[in-house]
Amino acid sequence: MMLLSSHLVMDPAIIFFLIAIALFPILIWLLTNMSPDGKKHKARNLQNKSKAKENHITGSLHNSGKKSENHITWSLYNKGAVGEYHVAQILSKLPQNEYQVINDLLINQNGQTTQIDHVVVSEYRIFVIETKFYQGKIYGGQNNDYWIQNIYGNKYQLRNPIHQNQKHIHVLASLLRDIDPNLFIPIIAFSRHASVNNIDNQTIVYWDQINEVIQTYQRKWISPEQAQKTYDILMTVNSSSPENRELHVENVKSQIARRKEAIANGRCPRCGGKLVLRNGQYGKFYGCQNYPQCRYTQTT
């Protein structure tokens, strides 16, 4: 037996065979992860894992059937529920005697719905927060309707959150006529999983910076009575029934369809003006003929 063992150990062919078996999984891993197709597969896996985590949390929240002290209401079909959940936890750490937080605010105005991730009411300002839970590199311009998400070279479009929040503030200002419109502070909050590039806007922060930004506003502009009235009004109009949730989803789909139809017909989705091909610093793009009154742009 000893002679047989020595023979097996010393046989170069057997040694080569064993080394090949040991290195084979490493070779497969390198081919899978370093090739362009492998990177795409990895990007898809990241998105799928994020989606699975999102579904797990939204399902748990939806099935609990409870409202927290901060009036957090969740929908199973809310795509951004994971990010909103984390930001709601962060906002709950604000001093409760100074700030009142409303999460997942849904407003229905004559069939037109608006969903706002978070509103923080205080005597200092009214903070309107749009939460984003993305990965990869994020870049775009303030006037672009869509920004770009880049994950391992794969590019995806996302709606310009600055425009989203501007519309949210417009809706809130129409409801809260006693509040000076200048007292609404927009905040766009990204997770640290994303790297936000080439976007010059002071209202874009990371989740862990939100409370710090809010608490930099220390001058009181709103009376305690006004602040409480504002909170009460928003809680009254907050309509988070399943019917309104479904209506909101349908409204969003209709808006996207109308926008695509306008662009396909060479028309600006904002004002209806003609889209004109222009040359810019970073290449060609389509801009509205009504510039500078309308600053809509679309990449080629």
Would you kindly provide a written description of the structure presented here, covering whatever features stand out?
The chain is of the alpha/beta class and 300 residues long. It has 2 domains: 66-264, no CATH class; 266-300. It is 43% helix and 25% strand. Strand 10 and strand 11 (283-288) form a beta hairpin. Helix 2 (12-34) packs across helix 3 (36-64). It is globular. Residues 1-9 and 46-77 have low confidence and may be disordered.
Describe the structure in brief.
By secondary structure, the chain is α/β, with parallel strands linked by helices.
Give a quick set of tags describing it:
300 residues; 2 domains; 5-stranded mixed sheet; 4-stranded mixed sheet; 25% strand; globular; disordered N terminus
